[in-house]
Specification:
Helix content: 55-70%
CATH architecture of one domain: Roll
Shape: elongated
Structural class: alpha+beta
Organism: marine gamma proteobacterium HTCC2143
Strand order of the largest sheet: 1-4-5
CATH topology of one domain: Nucleotide Exchange Factor Grpe, Chain A, domain 2
Subcellular location: Cytoplasm
GO cellular component, one term: cytosol
Largest sheet: 3 strands, antiparallel
Mean pLDDT: 81
Subunit structure: Homodimer.
Number of strands: 6
Radius of gyration: 51 Å
Family: Belongs to the GrpE family.
Number of helices: 5
Order of helices and strands: HHHHEEEEEEH
């Protein structure tokens, strides 16, 4: 009986020792895990804190971006101002365009009256003098407002300002020369209001004998 109790006590002591060893091992594992966690988290914490040099670099980048945005905004504002000034200038230059176009018919009628009148009739001659003065006064008034007449007789043909109504062989002038002005043209501040209607010379075709 005494041996049985002694064996039981011995077994209990061994179990207690094993339990203590197990607790010790658990504590060591937990402590090691915590230490490893602290060690692994430490570099991340250090990375999150920027060095003074990195902070300065970040501020310089932000300043450069702000400067670029300001310059871009300034450039856009200047472009808008220039476009507005140009629009205002064009509006001022060409405000008379429609009015001037209406006056061209009056100038044409005066031109036709002078060209078709019987200049040998003495009574008509007196009237023609008045018509000629009126026509000249109108042209001069138009010129004061930069509405200039195009009368390209004898000049090289310019498709920008002339409209060729026909081409005729003419050995007396260079090819592509205006030989007749059927209707004068006009420009307003160098912008075409109406092209001059003209006849243009072309080279004389060689005769059959010359071809042989």
């Amino acid at each position: 009986m005494e041996n049985t109790v002694s064996d039981q006590e011995k077994t209990n002591v061994e179990n207690d020792q094993q339990a203590e060893h197990s607790l010790t091992d658990i504590h060591e594992v937990v402590d090691g895990t915590v230490e490893d966690s602290e060690v692994s988290e430490s570099p991340e914490s250090e990375d999150q804190i920027l060095s003074p040099e990195a902070q300065i670099e970040a501020l310089e980048d932000e300043l450069a971006k702000t400067r670029d945005d300001a310059l871009r905004t300034l450039a856009e504002a200047q472009n808008i101002r220039r476009r507005s000034e140009k629009d205002i200038e064009n509006a001022r230059k060409f405000a008379l365009e429609k009015f001037a176009s209406e006056l061209l018919g009056v100038a044409d009628n005066l031109e036709r009256a002078l060209d078709s009148a019987d200049k040998d009739n003495e009574v008509v001659k007196v009237l023609l003098e008045g018509v000629a003065l009126t026509q000249k006064s109108l042209v001069d008034t138009l010129a004061k407002f930069n509405i200039m007449q195009l009368d390209p007789l004898g000049e090289p043909f310019d498709p920008q300002f002339h409209q060729a109504m026909s081409m005729v062989e003419n050995p007396d002038v260079e090819p592509n020369t205006v030989t007749l002005v059927m209707q004068k043209g006009y420009v307003l501040n160098e912008r075409l209001l109406r092209p001059a209607m003209v006849m243009v010379s072309k080279a004389v075709a060689p005769s059959i004998d010359e071809q042989v």
